[in-house]
Amino acid sequence: MKLRNVSKEELYRCSYGCAGCASVLAVRLTLKVLGRNSVFVVPANCISTVSCYYPQAPFFVPMTVMAFAATGAALCGISAGFKRRGREDIHVVGFSGDGGTADIGIQSLSGAIDSGYKFIYICYDNEAYMNTGIQRSGLTPYGATTSTTPSPCFENRPKKDMMRIVAAHDIPYAATACTSYPLDYMQKVEKASKVNGPTYIHVLAPCPTGWGFPPERTIEIGRMAVESGMWQLMEFEGGEFRITHTPRRRRPVAEYFEAQARFRHLRLEEIEAIQREIDASR
Amino acid sequence: MREKVPGPTSKAGSIPTKMGSWSTVKPVLKGRCTFCLFCWIFCPEGAISQDEANKVVLFNYEECKGCGICAHECPTKAIKMAEPEPRGGE
Question: Does A30 touch chain B (CB under 8 A)?
Answer without folding.
Answer: no
